[in-house]
Specification:
The protein is an alpha+beta fold and 252 residues long. Helix content is 45%, strand content 13%.
Length: 252
């Protein structure tokens, strides 16, 4: 098939799942900058001219929010030792890069997902920029309900007003933040994995297995291998807990 130029490299239009080989990323020499209006302009221009696609509508707001959270903004061209498909946005406190993913054949609703590029691979943070902004605001609201910290909300500006009304989490009377996020914002890999672990901790192995299987449904996180790796770990844990049951089933 055709090749697509992304970030100065060539990416083959192969099968979608091939967008995520197990990558080992070396030391990164990223270019950092303080946030300014030119930062978002650089990213928008890069996405249009180099990645050859339409930039997310609220990318400017997300960049400002990341900077408010203490993540230095990275030049979109600082791609040394990053996979060609990643467009870097910022670096978090753990040293991982928050980035947009520009893959050759994007599934519907995931044209440019927000990902975290770690030393040993790529992890999905949100299916799109709006969903990530929404989650950040909900978590900020839930964690700072008694404080008058409006920095992130101010940074989100009109995008934030459209996505989330401050105080909605408390008004919903949903006591669990993870439950609220799954119901009101969307599905997130880390939350589903946390739910599975909580089920195991409570001794509810059936719910853990069901949630692990739900996690792997192809319509939820197409193109990402993490759900299958995690579900395999869940099944292994089940075998450890019930070895006799598994042996008995295998006989039949």
């Amino acid at each position: 098939g055709k090749d697509m130029k992304v970030g100065g490299g060539l990416v083959s239009r192969g099968p979608r799942a091939a967008a995520f080989p197990p990558l080992l990323l070396g030391r990164r020499r990223a270019t950092f900058r303080c946030y300014s209006s030119s930062s978002s302009t650089d990213h928008v221009s890069f996405i249009k001219d180099v990645a050859a696609t339409q930039p997310p509508e609220h990318l400017h707001h997300l960049l400002k929010m990341l900077q408010v959270r203490g993540e230095p903004i990275i030049s979109p061209g600082a791609k040394q030792n990053l996979i060609p498909l990643a467009i870097p946005l910022s670096e978090n406190s753990a040293g991982s890069v928050t980035a947009l993913l520009r893959w050759p054949t994007a599934p519907p609703g995931m044209e440019m997902p927000v990902v975290e590029v770690r030393k040993h691979g790529v992890w999905l943070l949100a299916k799109n920029v709006d969903q990530y902004i929404h989650r950040i605001l909900v978590e900020e609201d839930a964690n700072n309900s008694r404080k008058s910290n409006y920095e992130l909300f101010h940074a989100s500006a009109d995008a934030g007003e459209k996505l989330y009304k401050k105080g909605d989490f408390a008004e919903s009377q949903i006591s669990n933040l993870d439950v609220y996020l799954l119901r009101k914002v969307g599905l997130f890999p880390d939350i589903l994995e946390r739910k599975v672990k909580h089920h195991f901790e409570k001794g509810d192995q059936v719910s853990a297995l069901v949630t692990g299987e739900f996690y792997t449904k192809k319509e939820h996180f197409p193109g990402f291998g993490r759900p299958f790796v995690f579900n395999a770990e869940v099944l292994l844990k089940f075998v450890e807990i019930f070895p006799y049951f598994v042996q008995k089933v295998s006989v039949y």
